[in-house]
Amino acid sequence: MLGQKSNSNLALGNSSTASSGLEQLRWNDYKFDISNGNQSFLGRSSSSSEYAGAQSRLPSTKSLFGANPNPNPYLTSAAIVPDFNADGKTDKIWVDSQTGETQVWLMDGTNVIQKGSLGQIDVSSTVYKIGDFNADGKTDFLLRNQVTGENSIVLMDGTNVANFIPIDTLDASWTPYIGDFDSDRKTDILWRNNQTGQNAIWLVDATNPNQVVKSATFIESVDPSWTPTMVDFDGNGRTDIFWRSATGENSAWFIDGTQANKSALETLDPTWTFSLGDFNGDFRSDLLWRNTTTGENKIWQANSLLPNSVFFTEGSLTTLDANWKSSIADFNADGKTDIFWHNEATGENTSWLMDGATITTETFLSPTPTSSKASFGDFNNDGRTDIYWRDYAGGADEIWTTNTDGTTVTKTPIAETDRLSPVQVGEDGQVIVGPDGLPLQKWITF
């Protein structure tokens, strides 16, 4: 993990854009129209089904004072969970993998109260991350063209685009990760060069459209075989970086702005994969480890007694076979991450209510079709995680609203008028089938 650390700034270009009158900004093959503050993406379409969603990260704990009653920012921050109107209710993002059209739905429980189309993006070359770049409690986008290297921040206000701000171009070897490295509640960007191992942090303040990127600094390079994940191991509201190598080595970098202090961690062989949570509600990132070979599961609870340091308390959990996939949630609104398990082979579902590394309650829920995929959020602002089931076979989506006991749900079908086509159809009216013989998905959500 040796490399050259530099405090020299990356070149910063003009990152401002006017927002009055009728103007058109050309972004390679994308055209962005600004008219009376009502803005939309316009661009070419693609038949590719690839798209990118948000990275997992923990923002400043100041977000606890937001609109949602749940104290855990993992599950309520607009920088992590889509909330475009700052009402504390999770909203939906939809991408048509056939045309590239992108829609935003504002949710109120099981009702869609407003829809907005952001036009089309080229899903074969464009990836996006969500964040909150101006700390207004409303989810924004970072758009990146992986072919041209052009980047833009899109500030949202409900279903409307409040501002579209081009920022500096970086070549295709750079990948963005989202965090808050100076704890100002404004989303920042870690750039990683997948070829050279270089890393840079851009501190962002989108409240200043004339200089959105307030600093851009190289930090130490790390061999490309290492992968970063944004965490907060010491719970101070500043994003840290958890590094894991292809050989199973682990390291933590504690970040203060653009300064990094490093700490070596225990090695776990590559058969172990992880996801993030906060299982004891102390605002420190914990790790849920899963062995893809044996099905073993365990939790590392983060503890930090001294600045720039972390040690973990390990607790073993029930072993589950490889068909079970985990997601984080908080079904009883206690601010402690729970675990939802879905069996991709059988459609079985179960939830574990957690207190640290202890399973306090295990609940078996109704099975779902194997063609259905779950996404999670609090759609009614009661502090409890609900489940949106996307039916990629028939389009009969359903929302499971978690009841006050945290162990049962109320099932509500999505209204007929809100159903989106689940599969791609050709000009001849026939379903388009992929190389695996299965229909290609059309409208995708996360």
Which spans of ≥5 residues are poorly predicted at pLDDT below 50?
1-9, 11-65
* Estimated radius of gyration: 21 Å
Give average pLDDT, whole number.
86
Strand order of the largest sheet: 6-5-4-31
Strand content: 35-45%
Shape: globular
Oligomer: single chain
What is the helix tally?
1
CA(first)-CA(last) distance: 34 Å
Q: How many strand segments?
A: 31
- Please summarize the sheet with the most strands: 4 strands, antiparallel
Helix content: under 10%
Q: How would you describe this protein?
A:
The chain is mainly beta. It is built from one helix and 31 strands. The protein has one helix at residues 73-76, and strands at residues 22-27, 30-35, 38-43, 92-96, 101-108, 111-120, 126-131, 140-145, 151-157, 160-167, 174-179, 188-193, 199-204, 213-219, 226-231, 240-245, 250-256, 259-265, 272-277, 286-291, 297-303, 311-317, 324-329, 338-343, 349-355, 358-365, 372-377, 386-391, 398-402, 409-413, 443-445. A four-stranded antiparallel sheet has the order 6-5-4-31, with no helix packed on it. It has a four-stranded antiparallel sheet with strand order 7-8-9-10, with no helix packed on it. The protein has a four-stranded antiparallel sheet with strand order 11-12-13-14, with no helix packed on it. The longest helix is centred in the N-terminal third of the chain and has 4 residues, at 73-76.
